[in-house]
Amino acid sequence: MALEHSRxxxxxxxxxxxxxxxxxxxxxELKKGAAGWVLLVGLGVAYVISGDxxxxxxxxxxxxxxxxxxxxxxxxTMYLCMCFSLAELSSMVPTAGGGYGFARTAFxxxxxxxxxxxxxxxxxxxxxxxxxxxxAYCESLFGIGGWAIYxxxxxxxxxxxxxxxxxxxxxxMFIITAVAALxxxxxxxxxxPHFSVDKLLDIAPTTAAGASNFLxxxxxxxxxxxxxxxxxxxxxxxxxxAAEETKNPQRDMPRGLIxxxxxxxxxxxLILLVGPGGAGSSTLVASGNPLVEALTxxxxxxxxxxxxxxxxxxxxLIASFFSIIYAYSRQIFALSRAGYLPRKLxxxxxxxxxxxxxxxxxxxxxxxxxxxxxxxxxxxxxxxATISYVLMMASHIVLRLRRxxxxxxxxxxxxxxxxxxxxxxxxxxxxxxFLVDPRVVIGAAIIYGIFIAYFAIYxxxxxxxxxxxxxxxxxxxxxxxxx
Length: 483
Description:
- The protein has helices at 22-26, 37-48, 50-53, 58-92, 99-142, 147-164, 166-191, 197-200, 218-230, 249-279, 281-284, 290-299, 304-337, 355-369, 374-402, 416-436, 438-457, 468-482, and strands at residues 4-7, 17-19, 463-464.
- The model is unreliable at 1-13 (pLDDT under 50).
- α5 (99-142) packs antiparallel against α15 (374-402), α7 packs parallel to α10 (249-279) and α7 packs antiparallel against α13.
- By secondary structure, it is mostly helical.
- The chain contains 18 helices and 3 strands.
- It has a 3-stranded mixed β-sheet, with no helix packed on it.
């Protein structure tokens, strides 16, 4: 397709935009009106619900129950503040780019790219970590696991469903998520009779500074537990990625984000209390399927409840796996459509699904899942996530200060104080990964650096004019010039 140079915007003179024909966007369309706010709540919960089933418990090995508890309180505060802030941003800039679109508006193309690729690292790696936990649950349930489970059942089948169409995928995901939430409720009720404070604090104190029965690994254990506390909430911020497929994004996005977050906070608090409190924190520190192991330990053997939670708990892992595939494909779609990534990645099929954006990260994720290192893959996903949180919250603050006159269908309670709290906690969370395994985080940072180099060398000279994100930024800049 013929392209022609269009312009270079004055504030970003090194950034080149190209005009494209109308057929370019016709080949890159998503299905409009596929989701209302109820489905968005389900999407937000689905992104995260696997974190209730596995992954969070590795934080017990870093901070003990007390350290993980405090870390979870801090991260719950960060995510609540962030969701209130993102609700405002998503009602202002309702595009498939999500956080990339917000940062593009606040900081220009480079800021948008930095945010979008950080989110992409998060969403491309998270399914691989979830696949590892799916394997553990399958081995517990069926006695089998490994590459056949990862590849044949989960990656191929669920990517195939997304290729078939978003409306069908979101509805199926909502049903799976509802079933998974039911299993969490069964687990919570079943563990209550076995709860004991002594079991919460059964990890022996070390010699670390501030160590006690409550904080067996001392004060530093709180910080080290943060990446795993994040796993209770990781990816809920992906709800805005559905903006272009939502019936009324200005109204539905805030409802979807905040509604999902409130449900997730309730589940996180209850599971963190009754799981270790019923089975013992020391029992769950390295478990790949901690809820099933907690029930088996509490009741002395496998019961119908542990079997039910194991079987239906697989639905929770599947729900997150399924929904995050959706998220990474929309992030790639938006970045590709705008020229930040190769443009072929945003081509959609007759069902309005971006096929290459679904398949290519799936292949990468499958290969990573074969490592079996779920805890380390969590660190990589958290690195990308926390970088994006810093940039998105900075975007909220900058737009509030520089453009208070922009139309905001929803306004964040507390304004920049709320996003400022989230920003500070996000900065703390970025550093926390280095306390667990600095090699893994440095490796993730190198991958991020490769993306940045690609932008500096190539894509900044081949950006596309006329995408929703660029149009909003152009309007915002024109309005600012007139004042």
